[in-house]
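COURSE: Structural Biology Practicum
ASSIGNMENT: Worksheet 4, Part C
STUDENT ID: 0417
INSTRUCTIONS: Below are two proteins. For each, the amino acid sequence is given first, followed by its structure token string. Answer the questions at the end about the second protein only.

PROTEIN I
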Amino acid sequence: MAAPDGSVDLRSDTATRPTAAMYAAMVEAPVGDAAAGEDPTVRRLEELAAAWVGKAAAIYVPSGTMANQLALRVLARPGTEVVCGERAHIYRYENAASAVNAGVQIRPLADPDGAFAPDALRAALHTAEYHQPEVSLVAIENTHMPSGGRPHDVAWVGSIAAVAAGAGVPVHCDGARIFNAAVALGVPAAALCAPVDTVMFCTSKGLGAPVGSLLCGPADVIAAAAAHRQRLGGAMRQAGVIAAAALVALDTGIDRLADDHRRARRLAEILADGFPGSVDPEAVRTNIVCAATDALPATLLGRLAAEGIRAGTIDPATTRFVTHRDVDDADVERTAAALRSIAADPGA
């Protein structure tokens, strides 16, 4: 379904608008002082979120970035390093927040397919023996956005967690789209999260809520995160109004993610056919299509925009298309027609 202005917005799955059920739930939600733990709707959301990913407790925060930063504040130590992939969100897309908020520096590892190698992690964990900074936290990302929303399976997550555990280092999962990974892999989200200490997920991406993310983990870690949330200005008051929409998103948003994945694959096939070398459709398993910009016409985004179709870039080399609840089959076919037209006359 096109946006109110008639456009098809493929820039991000954060573009979704609240459903009628979400609006109704927001109006009817019982509320209280969430900062004091007195909002029953927020408490219910936190309980359900923790259960979905198999953790003891959860804390509701305004954004995924804040959830990641809370994990770094609680699990990492100032003056140490956090190991992650070289294209990880906490490294590339959080405005150097780890240095400001947690006093840590990032040690990026090569992640050509979105996953760094256990052996590379093992080597990084032992560099303190050579007068380099100690590693106090390992962070993974599932799905991995820059590699086209690639889902990482239980085996890889477990292999990374095992190496980290051998060095006594905790693991945090940036699981902004963890339910996309679970649906694509056909496994429960809790299975993907079992090997890690903490996981965050966004209700405002694939699940379609208007705002909010949850950090989940052991009760003591989440209690510590609550104190840091206050320091960062993230303690909210009658937040049940927005938590109610997130509850609807958890209830209705997971099963339909397969539709987003199917539509993204369709877009990938059209791109690959019209612009050879731009994307490998076989690698598109969730709702994100990352295409090589140098294989596309320089005018592509502008020409799509002229047709009322919005896409974007994540770096100079990558053009991104993201499917979500507000993009239906008709929108995909409209986009496909526009891409075919551009491919037929790329120099226009």
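PROTEIN II
(use this one for the questions)
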Amino acid sequence: MRSRFTFLLGALVITAMPLALAQTGSLHLPGTVEAGSAFSIQSTGNGNAVLYIVGLGQVVKRKVQLGQTVSFAPGDLRSAGHYLAVLVGDSSTENGAFDVTAAHQPGALSFLAKPSRLAVDLHDGISGVVYVFDAFQNLVLATTQVSFQLSGVAGATQTRTALTHNGVAWTKMDSAAKEGSVQFVARVGDAASTRVMQLVPGNPCHLRMSARPSGQRLAVETEPVRDCNGNALPDGTIVTFTERYKGGESTVDVPLKRGVARTDMPAYGGAKISVATGVFVGNEIRWGGER
């Protein structure tokens, strides 16, 4: 029975489609309906009929008395799109079309922010894109103002506003100078969405070491390694000590521990000891005299 009804309804829609854009004298339709709102359809004539409202993924069926107004409650039509209205009477079929548009009031945001982890003090290093939907998950195509706010590190706050184009708005933000978590918030009216991002230290900007005798060897140690904004580089960052001496070279890779790297190296007279992490080179020490 269900498959037979589906077949008949499909045939009805196909038959009526060539006339879908024409308003008839017996069926008076609204031009547009806001999603989720109440609306009505007026018919003329006498007798009984069946009214079908057909849209993408939705069919509404009502038995009607011709000449009376057919009322639809809020929420009967929720999906935005183009709808076909077909009135099937005892001796005739009338049809017309109307559009359901997204509700004007935004109800939800889809907020994409990247990257989730990045270095401090980057101009336009953070990007955010927002899609604005109504309460029924229809993309709101009307121009809407979106506010963006980035905050959370040492009380620093950045704000931006942008207008949507076809339901989408975007912006870029600078990452703060201090490491830590930040909150990136997009807001339209009462609808808001938050993303949490992690700021990590940038490239090293302060790398100095010292050396002292340790038995028959040299103990070398860095000062706390920091970036240009004073953020300590994370533990595990590799620091390379290189000792060049007559006829040879020794290299030791050491991870930072509590912000400092330390190790022992051979105590060759006249040796030159340098330190580096990544592409950043620190000071150089010349140890003792020639042997």
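ANSWER KEY EXCERPT:
Q1: Helices lie at 2-16.
Q2: The CA atoms of residues 159 and 210 lie 45 Å apart.
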